[in-house]
Amino acid sequence: MSTTLFNLQRDHIAHLQQAYSDILTNHGFDSLAIYSGHASVYFADDHAPPFQTYGHFMHWVGLADVQHSWLIIQPEKRPQLYLYAPADFWHLPTHLPEEPWVEAFDVHLCSDKISPPLSGNTAIIGDIERLATSAQLALKADIHPEPVVKALDELRLFKTPYEITCIREANRLAIAGHQATQAAFIGAAGELDIQLAYLAASRQRESNVPYQNIIGLNEHAGVLHYQHYDLHAPKQRYSLLVDAGRRFRGYCADITRTYAGPDAPAAFGELVTAMKVLKDELVKGVAPGVSFVALHEQMHHHLGEILVANDVFKGTAEQAVAEGVTRAFCPHGLGHSLGLQVHDVAGLRHPDGTPAPAPEQHPALRLTRTLRPGMVVTIEPGLYFIAMLLAPLRNTSLPINWSLVDQLSSCGGIRIEDNVAVTESGFDNLTP
């Protein structure tokens, strides 16, 4: 661990200590117990899916796979970390890294699963419902007090310099994977082989990715959360869409790239270039005081211009937006908050914790906040040829170039995504 990163993490922990102290005091609590969570086995089985530590626990320790552990936070006192570390010859025992940040905690290694030591007026957060002791804990503490959880979510929305450094490093590692996927695509690999190339180059197991990678060739690029990998390469290579990430100390990268293949119509390559330019323009629009909803609406306006300029729509950009044409070609939001979770917390709330839902005409938008320094967001404009969304438009008189749309449908779609931090003066694109 570099000295610079340790110093940033030390400052990050000090920031959390002060912020948690203020939140607990403001809501009348003497302490807070945070449960890491634990994996549950599949129904009627003894195997469990990959596990991710509760975000508010990770916020302190940066370890994404800690289970059956507790963190006790009290104002003006050192954090108490009760780490479950049983003697086990079936699995590698849990251990803390030999890094200086550990000295900020009083660490208790526990060979058995414990209940947290509670004192005074205590709150508990985390997935405790499946604990055998959940009923007893509920008698001793306030479980998931909503005002406290909302305040902690709001705290996580604004990243410290340490957190932004971690997201930047996660991006660097992920980009190596994306470069490998492009090379595999050029080499005529299939979806599974492209996925394996990504994992190898980004140096991670599939169980460690922050979300299931989307590796879509041809029409599969038009399935927004495509969840399979064909074992064999297609005969024609029209397109590749890769939406794939990486963690570093719990923090996520979420990057998407789209490539035109050798068999793609020339018009598709031109659209990919236009969407890259659009992504860059939208990134430049990230700044303090900017409404993310307004930025999303700006995406639709520019998307209308792209449809017109590339002969997909023969009307005006304004008409394409007003008639819902751009929403049929791009049904998702411009982006979302990013951090310890890929779709990070508090994106659909006002600063006081009250709901800030997505607009009725843009129901898939995951972030409705006004941007402020410290936020990290994704910027991911898209343009897709999804039959079920375009079908209703075929029965209208709208001037859509259906022959071109049908020609492009085998390419699936386009999405370009970067991860961007909001700074005091503008933006910092964390995706190299």
Strands, helices and their partners?
Elements: H1 3-26, E1 31-35, H2 55-61, E2 70-73, E3 80-84, E4 106-110, E5 122-125, H3 134-140, E6 142-143, H4 146-157, H5 161-186, H6 191-202, E7 214-217, E8 239-248, E9 251-260, H7 266-284, H8 292-309, H9 317-322, H10 325-329, E10 376-379, E11 382-384, H11 387-394, H12 402-408, E12 413-415, E13 418-422, E14 427-429
Overview of this protein structure:
With 432 residues, the protein is an alpha+beta fold. It folds into two domains: 3-157, Creatinase/prolidase N-terminal domain (Creatine Amidinohydrolase, Chain A, domain 1), CATH 3.40.350.10; 161-429, Creatinase/methionine aminopeptidase superfamily (Creatine Amidinohydrolase, Alpha-Beta Complex), CATH 3.90.230.10. It is 35% helix and 16% strand. It is built from twelve helices and 14 strands. It has a six-stranded mixed sheet. It has a three-stranded antiparallel sheet with strand order 7-8-9. A three-stranded antiparallel sheet has the order 10-13-14. A hairpin with a 6-residue loop joins strand 2 (70-73) and strand 3. Helix 1 (3-26) runs antiparallel to helix 4 (146-157) and helix 7 (266-284) packs antiparallel against helix 8. The model has no long low-confidence stretch (mean pLDDT 96).
